[in-house]
Amino acid sequence: MKIGLVLSGGGARGIAHLGVIKALQEAGINFSEISGTSAGSIIGALYSHGYSTDDILSIVKEVKAFRFLQPAMSWRGILKMDVMHKFLEQLMPHNSFEALKIPLHVAATNLRTGMTEYFSSGKLIGAVCASSCIPVLFDPIEFEGELYIDGGILNNLPYEPLRKSCDVLIGSHSNPIDHNFEPKNARLVMERALLLAIGCNVYNRSSQCDFFIEPLGLETYKVLDLTNIDDIYRIGYEQAIKQIEEQKITETCKV
């Protein structure tokens, strides 16, 4: 049985994917292919490369947010992804989809065509950076002659590359909507509008997954805040254990 794992975007909340993967592993579930967007593409790439969930958690803890806040000096965005690209090169020097231990598909939004594109071969890191390029905040990524922004804008649960090749799809969504939002300033309102739009396309796609894990309790954590790494990971892990049992995922995946 081929099992596909679909990882949503979610910024810092994407750390919860590590807890979900850990819980699924402990339940005896292994993945034949992975598809991800934004934070999900980063987690997916590192895991597919061969890093364990504990390894990736340690890597995230070593990351200092200011290292990635390099001014773009451009009308397109206020920050650049160059430092992220160099950081990922250190972790995955092969920079190739073909060198991954688990096949990976990365979703990004083509800024010119307004369409989602999926990458699964060739240069890995450029595709991951394109998929993670939050609009307005980051300068769009030029990759293979096109400009790209965050894949979650159009498709924050990219099940499509896996639907035909996998027998079972498990979706992990790390970016739930907070239903007690307070509009304290314009920046928060803009972030809220973006998250609502992204969240909408997740729930429209969730029915295409055979199982859908959404850790409850992530709503209060800020998308770009890396100060609560352990808490976010714990929520992902504990919620996944509960939802694996409730949905009887193990029984289905071992048939």
TrEMBL record:
Q: Where is this motif: GXGXXG?
A: 9-14
Annotated active site: 38, 150
**Record-annotated PNPLA domain positions:** 5-163
Answer whether the UniProt record assigns the keyword Hydrolase to this protein.
yes
Record's protein name:
Patatin-like phospholipase family protein
Instruction: Print the keywords alphabetically.
Output: Hydrolase, Lipid degradation, Lipid metabolism
The molecular function terms in GO held by this entry are: hydrolase activity
Query: Where does this chain carry the motif DGA/G?
Result: 150-152
GO terms of biological process kind: lipid catabolic process
What taxonomic lineage is listed for the species of origin? Answer: Bacteria, Pseudomonadati, Bacteroidota, Cytophagia, Cytophagales
Q: Which organism is it from?
A: Fulvivirga marina
The record places the motif (GXSXG) at: 36-40
